Amino acid sequence: MSLLALRPLLARNRFSTLPLLRIAATIPVPKQSRCYATAQKRSETSLSAASDRTDVSTDVRPLGERVKENTKTASYMGVILLGVGVTSVLFYAIFKELFSSNSPNNIYTEALERVKDEPKVKDALGAPIKGFGEESRRGRRNHVAHTTYVRDGVQYIRMQFYVQGIRNKATVHLEKRLNESGDYEYRYLFVQLDYYPHSTIILEDNRLQQDALKSLPSLQPIV
């Protein structure tokens, strides 16, 4: 059959299907929003139930074991706090030793500067002059010998160290007392030469003056 013979049949079928397409277009399509809302509500309900189940404690250990665990944790915290306290005390002691004006280290530093600046010491030993303490077993001389004591209610500190120039050596002796203001003041400071005739260079000596003031009777208030 030729195409010219089929053309009338195709045209007739096209016009017959148009009413069916128009009827199908007028049929309403069911909406999915209600089904989606129902599914979402069920999902939220499931999540809420799961969250409620996770809030329940899962610790099923015996009471004695839990008490033992808490006691162990408390003991660990006590050890940590004790360590922090000991460390704080050590830091305070180091800070006081290094930065306090009344510390032995600062007393040694101040006395050494006075000795190095004294013209008589420069002439006797030869500049430049360096200072050092007692020699340790390892050959170091960082330790400066000193002692503190209390006499008649007054605190004293006594110290000894060594100085050396390009020609000779000497030993430095000093003693300080704590005054009413809370500061140390010199009782004496002198340098004893290590070579013959072992003469002494006195930088400061207030012993007679301080002892005389101490021996004076205290004045009684007039009533």
UniProtKB/TrEMBL annotation:
It is found in: Mitochondrion inner membrane; Mitochondrion membrane. The keyword Cell membrane does not apply. The chain crosses the membrane at residues 76-95. It is a single-pass membrane protein. InterPro entries: Tim21, Tim21_IMS_sf. Its main location: mitochondrion. Keywords: Membrane, Mitochondrion, Mitochondrion inner membrane, Protein transport, Transit peptide, Translocation, Transmembrane, Transmembrane helix, Transport. Pfam families: TIM21. Component of the TIM23 complex. Belongs to the TIM21 family. Essential component of the TIM23 complex, a complex that mediates the translocation of transit peptide-containing proteins across the mitochondrial inner membrane. This is Mitochondrial import inner membrane translocase subunit Tim21.
